[in-house]
Amino acid sequence: MTYDDLLRRAAALARPGHRAILGIAGSPGAGKTTLARRLVRDLGDIAAHVPMDGFHLADAELDRLGLRDRKGAPETFDAGGYAALLRRLRDERGEVVYAPGFERVLEQPIAGAVPVPPGARLVVTEGNYLLLDTGSWVRVRGELDEVWFCAPDEEDRVRRLVARHEEFGKSHEAAVAWVLRSDQRNAELVAGTRERADLVLTAAQLPEP
After folding, report:
1. Which fold has domain 3-202?
2. pTM
């Protein structure tokens, strides 16, 4: 299956008079955002991109909960709020719905940053934990028409992830340490969910970053 095949499959979900939600899951650095942005770009006005990252808990709340060093783990997201937004996107098609975004330089969620217009018949949402079967993540999966799982080469995934952390201010040593500690734990958890996906995509099927 090529990227063009994926594009056609996504387009087929976007039926007139209906709003579908396509989920793209995978471990940190797997290429989820790249694929989501490419699909939305190529589909044009009928599609919108809503990342899960807007539902990160704020650092102040993570500090209160004692979870700052676990940032990025499932318990550091508002999964219930994410599920509620997905339901709202499905139900409220006649007006603009605003979703939160995530500012990578600040490493903070930003309210009302992502507009989803009425004409968007397909919402592409991406995140690590779309296929988790615990807590409110079960409700998230229930709102998704399909979920595709990105499974790139592991060395490439880690390399991209280190580069991303460096791009947003970490030293090389700090980036490697974070990837091998926090991100790797999350990656192992996510890898165990791939069998629940409708489609598993290998490196050859994923667009270049």
Report:
1. Rossmann fold (3.40.50)
2. 0.89
Q: CA 159, 114, 121, 94: dihedral to nearest 10 degrees?
A: 170
Q: What is the pLDDT of residues 63-97, one digit of tens each?
A: 999 999 888 899 999 999 999 999 999 999 999 99
In angstroms, the Cα distances linking 121 to 40, 67, 81, 139, 149 are 11, 37, 21, 21, 21
- Choose among 120, 102, 100: nearest CA to 111: 100
Comparing CA positions, the residue from 201, 171, 182, 185 lying closest to residue 34 is 201
Contacts of 97 (CB under 8 A, 6+ apart): 85, 88, 89, 115, 116
Going by their DSSP bridges, the two strands 20-26 and 122-126 should be labelled as parallel
Q: Which two three-digit tokens encode residue 1?
A: 């299956």
- Domain coordinates of the chain in residue numbers? 3-202
